[in-house]
Design a protein that fits this description.
Elements: E1 2-6, H1 12-27, H2 33-44, H3 46-54, E2 59-65, E3 68-76, E4 84-92, H4 101-115, E5 120-126, H5 131-137, E6 141-149, E7 155-164
Parallel strand pairs: 4-5
Antiparallel strand pairs: 1-2, 2-3, 3-4, 5-7, 6-7
Helix pairs in contact: 1-2
């Protein structure tokens, strides 16, 4: 049985491991290896994870089957002072994708978002990421196209997607 639990600082290594296993599969055909390595290093070093929680108000959750961690998500309530919960990260181990784990993580975020007076969920997805179809299937709609510039001339080419909370 898949359970969703709150992550702690002790889980950062597991989160990093999942990101490092997932990103090459999710982005290997989309991003150059140098950009992929840069982004993993920038977004998933221990200081960045600590800062996300301590200073940016992010929460991390884990999807587990027994003691095995299969995926994670992070989210933030009241994103940009709106009644919106932003899903910042959601990654499932490649070998366990397609088993409903991502949906369970999003359902959990939606539940706590509703409890925190959010009226919608929001997320960014790379415009060329196959996950786009998963998000559309579960009710997210594209509301905006954004290009986010990173250091070294790297670019994140995303769709902003939103889903009303029922």
């Amino acid at each position: 049985m898949i359970t969703i639990v709150t992550a702690t600082a002790d889980d950062y290594k597991n989160i990093q491991d999942i990101a490092h296993q997932t990103w090459p599969v999710a982005y290997g055909e989309i991003l150059a290896k140098a950009q992929l390595d840069y982004m993993l290093g920038a977004f998933y070093n221990e200081e960045a994870l600590k800062d996300s929680v301590a200073n940016k108000g992010h929460y991390f959750i884990l999807a587990k089957e027994g003691e095995e961690i299969l995926g994670f998500a992070s989210y933030e309530h009241h994103y940009n002072q709106k009644s919106q919960t932003k899903i910042h990260k959601i990654y499932i181990l490649p070998q366990t994708q397609g088993k409903g784990i991502g949906k369970k993580l999003i359902d959990y975020v939606e539940k706590v978002a509703k409890e925190n007076d959010s009226s919608e969920l929001s997320l960014n997805v790379n415009r060329f990421n196959k996950a786009l179809y998963f998000y559309q299937k579960i009710g997210f709609q594209i509301v905006e196209e954004v290009d986010i510039e990173l250091e070294h001339g790297y670019l994140m080419e995303d769709y902003v997607m939103e889903k009303p909370i029922q």
